[in-house]
């Protein structure tokens, strides 16, 4: 029977655990231990120890089995990991996942828009083509009056068609890198935008060795001084500034070759493409044409050195949409 806390002072002989027992019924007082009871408790303690050890082992085994079932201890694989998409930042500041390059997507940026006269519009240089040379500040008005045949880099195109044999030549004493001129002419004539695609012709180069052995050329493409071009273009008047086609010779004025024309602005390379294609067009029998309308690309046979007549510059026989 529990003591009443209000029954006065506690007796000095009371069990010291009695106050704690007053906290609630969960704490029961232990019965007195007899020798028989002590032996029974020891046997129970040993049984519980063995049972606990067995339970622990079973728990560890179950964890291991579960881990294996989840693939946590698989053998290493030799397969490559799947590609991980990377992110790049767009111009507007947003991010987008880049495609996996192995999926066949091209990582090459798109080319220049149709009809531009940027460097990309001129196409890749042919094998052996040289970078733009540094020309002297002052060019000669006249040279030696005789020409030499130049070698061109690379082979002829593989297109079929009516054969047009051509040589590339330069007047002596021009003080410019004529190998660059030869490479440029070769690149223009073999370009898929050129006359081979339009007229069904096939340009075949006549080398210096072949010319020395007496081989002839249907068209001689010559870089000459203003005086040389003026003299050999007669009765046409080139006035030291213009180029012409005369008697199977394409006579390109050094002044125009070096400096281009105002109609092309700073795009000297684009003007050179036009210059070769325009005069070779005359050699193939093409006459001058007019601008088809304001803002449209000029046909290559428009006299673009003089004016564009409302058109935009374009140096190829094929229209921009055919590139």
UniProtKB/TrEMBL annotation:
Residues 12-30 have a biased composition (Basic and acidic residues). The keyword Transmembrane helix applies. Residues 1-37, 70-161 are annotated as: Disordered. The chain crosses the membrane at residues 47-70. The keyword Transmembrane helix applies. SUPFAM superfamilies: Metalloproteases ('zincins'), catalytic domain. It comes from the Bacteria. Residues 124-134 have a biased composition (Pro residues). It holds the Pfam family DUF3152. Coiled coil: none annotated. Gene3D superfamilies: Collagenase (Catalytic Domain). Residues 139-308 form the DUF3152 domain. Residues 104-118 have a biased composition (Low complexity). GO terms for molecular function: metallopeptidase activity. Keywords: Membrane, Transmembrane, Transmembrane helix. This is DUF3152 domain-containing protein. It comes from Kineosphaera limosa NBRC 100340.
């Amino acid at each position: 029977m529990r003591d009443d806390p209000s029954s006065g002072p506690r007796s000095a002989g009371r069990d010291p655990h009695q106050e704690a027992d007053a906290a609630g019924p969960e704490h029961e007082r232990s019965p007195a231990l007899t020798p028989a009871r002590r032996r029974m408790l020891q046997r129970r303690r040993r049984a519980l120890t063995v049972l606990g050890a067995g339970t622990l082992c079973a728990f560890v085994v179950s964890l291991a089995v579960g881990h294996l079932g989840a693939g946590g201890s698989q053998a290493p694989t030799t397969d490559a990991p799947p590609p991980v998409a990377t992110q790049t930042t767009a111009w507007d500041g947003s991010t987008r996942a880049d495609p996996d390059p192995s999926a066949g997507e091209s990582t090459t940026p798109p080319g220049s828009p149709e009809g531009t006269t940027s460097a990309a519009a001129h196409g890749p240089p042919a094998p052996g083509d040289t970078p733009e040379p540094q020309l002297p500040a002052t060019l000669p008005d006249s040279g030696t009056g005789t020409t030499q045949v130049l070698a061109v880099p690379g082979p002829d195109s593989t297109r079929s068609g009516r054969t047009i044999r051509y040589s590339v030549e330069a007047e002596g004493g021009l003080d410019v890198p004529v190998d660059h001129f030869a490479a440029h002419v070769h690149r223009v004539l073999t370009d898929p935008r050129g006359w081979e695609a339009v007229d069904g012709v096939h340009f075949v180069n006549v080398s210096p060795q072949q010319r020395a052995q007496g081989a002839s050329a249907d068209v001689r493409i010559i870089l000459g001084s203003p005086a040389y071009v003026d003299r050999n273009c007669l009765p046409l008047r080139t006035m030291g500034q213009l180029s012409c086609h005369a008697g199977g010779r394409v006579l390109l004025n050094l002044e125009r070759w070096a400096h281009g024309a105002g109609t092309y602005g700073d795009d000297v390379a684009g003007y050179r493409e036009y210059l070769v294609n325009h005069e070779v067009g005359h050699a193939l029998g093409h006459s001058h044409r007019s601008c088809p309308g304001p803002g449209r690309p000029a046909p290559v046979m428009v006299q673009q050195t003089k004016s564009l007549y409302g058109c935009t510059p374009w140096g190829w026989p094929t229209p921009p949409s055919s590139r």
